[in-house]
């Protein structure tokens, strides 16, 4: 562009550009009609013959015209930067150069009207030059108002407010933790509605339900835990759960003391060897069903720490009688007959046939042993719902029993849903399962062979196991067979290889089963066992050991995978419905 323009030519050029700025705020961002209006102003000025203006206007890119003209004027004619001076001089020039405002264009009364009106150039997908240069784009002389109509800036301000409020709130949360609200976290954690909470007032005001864990392996402890979940939910109490005792440590202590300790063997396990239940069960998920308080200490310490609370102690031997949801009235003969018939079908133990290590609650057992034909029934809601003590406590391992009978069908279905939807393994165990599944591939078959410490399975030969697999047509599906076993002499499985099976054991997946952080863990074998239960539960065909709680739980998990809201029978659920109408 020629830099030797006359003052009148410079003034015409500047006024056209200034009018463009001014109109952009009167109407909002320029529409196509305003672009035409600005081009008319340029053509009416005496600089229309300049080559650069001609070329750019012929291409039709108005933004390039304005951008180029602005920088030319700013760099060579800075004396036009005074707003008042340029306004006065341009008012005279524009009165004869610019056309009148078209009647079809609405007049905006304020900057908010212009912003909301939506007169935006839809072809403009990015910020234009007057958005990026506030010294030229936001000053307006008319009525001495300064207006900025940028949606980007408004959104930025909103985001800034949110960031400030969030940053202001974070220190308060940190301050609460520093004041010691969770000062007892080394002994317990509390989960409510899927989250861990730190609220001492809630802790003191809660009504609790808890139990003495039984003296047995993981699956015995799991059975007691599941029974406690159902009862605590029915009673609307916070469930106190206890750490898991490793199976190998239970076996070692039983051999060390040379006599049967029953449930007391759990209390002899050192706190250092106990595994927090949250490492096995997803307690955050369970807390969506009911509040959960997780204990980290051993059981003796737990009782001592809560002596200041009121306790209601319960002790009924589940091998001698049955828990029901609610006892029927004495006049409901049909309901009582149905319960007694179900008890006869279950073949409950009499006093003399109960194993020594299961003879808990001896005073209660003696009360019912005088009448050998009378099976005791205990009502959960009848006996426990009206208790006002702080803690309802099932002592002497009496929470370990295999079955409950419910007379209410809806309550039975609810209990099934609680077990299936809210009691799941912790995420690290699921991660191990996915890693191993990717190594094995699908389909595969699985088998649980328990031999070293289970009397009913020790004498079963490999041929018997092969017959069970053949009945299911396992080889017709795949030759891959995962074996969960405690048998250390793997030559015992040679007949399976000869039959055509490609055997896989836990030792083949130790990298996936034992993360580096857990290789020295005293509970390593139990973690492996839990993962193996999930592996077997996802197999195409499964064959288990008779009367093994390990195998029974695998069968339950396999049933859960296909559950669609129907009633479940034992052993797929510890809660079964008694249909009175069928009697």
TrEMBL record:
Q: What class of enzyme is it?
A: transferase
Report what the protein is called.
GDP-fucose protein O-fucosyltransferase 2
What family is this? Belongs to the glycosyltransferase 68 family.
Q: Which Pfam families match?
A: O-FucT (PF10250)
- Give the matching CDD domains: O-FucT_like
Q: Which GO terms describe its cellular component?
A: endoplasmic reticulum
What keywords are assigned to this protein?
Answer: Carbohydrate metabolism, Endoplasmic reticulum, Fucose metabolism, Membrane, Transferase, Transmembrane, Transmembrane helix
Q: Which residues cross the membrane?
A: 152-170
Write out the annotated subcellular location.
Endoplasmic reticulum
Q: Name one GO molecular function term.
A: peptide-O-fucosyltransferase activity
Catalytic reaction annotation: L-threonyl-[protein] + GDP-beta-L-fucose = 3-O-(alpha-L-fucosyl)-L-threonyl-[protein] + GDP + H(+); L-seryl-[protein] + GDP-beta-L-fucose = 3-O-(alpha-L-fucosyl)-L-seryl-[protein] + GDP + H(+)
Pathway the protein takes part in: Protein modification; protein glycosylation
Entry keyword annotation includes DNA repair:
no
Entry's EC annotation? 2.4.1.221
Lineage of source species: Eukaryota, Metazoa, Cnidaria, Anthozoa, Hexacorallia
Gene Ontology biological process: fucose metabolic process
